[in-house]
Design goal:
The chain has about 160 residues and is α+β, with helices and mostly antiparallel strands. About 50% of the residues lie in helices and about 20% in strands. The protein folds into two domains: about 5-80, 2-Layer Sandwich (S16 Ribosomal Protein, Chain: A); about 95-130. Helix 3 (about 100-130) crosses helix 4.
């Protein structure tokens, strides 16, 4: 039987109060427990001495029996000097989900395309300044063709 030292919630809605209990790990959070070894009232100020109350000799007994505290209870025990505080590292915490990574990749592609378009526009803006004689006739020819196409359409409308 694996035994845990954990919190069991009590109190009213929006007014939590926790019992620090020793319980079988398979039992429900607020269900049956073996022994109550303290209490935790998160509604009190952090400096209040009644925020966390522990029965130290019973906690030591259960730790000696092999009971494993949960992370929150372990923090309380470390603050009381009954256990050493462990540091936990979750390398996956900072890793982005696949969906987020896809969005970032799409944004990077769009940004790159805009930068390339801006670079091309800048290059085109500089090119006419260097050789305006070569490009000017090429640009005028399509404009003349477009004007020639529009003129017959206007004449047909007038005829009707």
């Amino acid at each position: 039987m694996a035994v845990k030292i954990r919190l069991a919630r009590g109190g009213a809605k929006k007014r939590p109060y926790y019992r620090i209990v020793v319980a079988d790990e398979r039992s429900p959070r607020d269900g049956r427990y073996i022994e109550r070894v303290g209490s935790y009232n998160p509604m009190l100020n952090k400096t209040d001495e009644n925020r966390v109350i522990l029965i130290t000799d019973r906690v030591k007994h259960w730790l000696g029996e092999g009971a494993q505290p949960t992370r929150r209870v372990e923090k309380f025990l470390a603050d009381a000097g009954l256990a050493e505080k462990k540091t936990y590292n979750n390398p996956q915490k900072a890793k982005q989900s696949e969906k987020t990574q896809m969005r970032l990749d799409e944004k990077a592609e769009k940004r790159k395309a805009l930068e390339e378009a801006a670079a091309e526009a800048k290059a085109e803006a500089e090119a006419p300044a260097e050789a305006p004689a070569e490009e000017a006739p090429a640009e005028e020819a399509p404009a003349e063709e477009a004007a020639a196409e529009e003129a017959p359409a206007e004449e047909e409308k007038k005829a009707e």
